[in-house]
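note to self: dont lose this again. the chain is below, predicted strucutre after it. 175 aa total, dont forget to put it in the shared folder this time
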Amino acid sequence: MIYFTTMKSPVDELLLLSDGENLTGLFMHECSHPPTKQGDWKRKDDLPVFEKAKQQLTNYFKGELTEFDLPLKASGTEFQKRVWRELSRIPYGQTINYGQLAQRIGNPNAQRAVGLANGRNPIGIVVPCHRVIGANGTLTGYGGGLPRKQTLLELESRVAGHSGRAKQQKIPLTV
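---
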């Protein structure tokens, strides 16, 4: 069974998915790789993981939360999961490029594969694929669209620039 809910956000409506215990998906409306809705989907707005995710996302968009503390379970290949785990290690308010991400996973020649895995991240925002930019510093390749990527990066830059304003949580993300 796949459970879902939606929430409004500054980057449009978000679709949240769960297996009942973990957040398994977070997608923006009109994204590049939306999930395929199947017959076993059930809307369940009051699922505890959804309530926790909605509260944390609300606080993130207010600039009051810089790290998420949610149970996550992403489906993908082992390579994709390795990339997504590394995405979770990019500090709030900072960016890296695809080459740096490839180096961090121990495969410096896999820039394109890293980019493809980044684009298939099923838990956007929480697993911060928006923090990866082009080698020349430009915004490139974001499944939610470049204007949304810009919005997220500007939010984080603004909050990170005001030390002490955002509440830091030191709980690492796992995918």
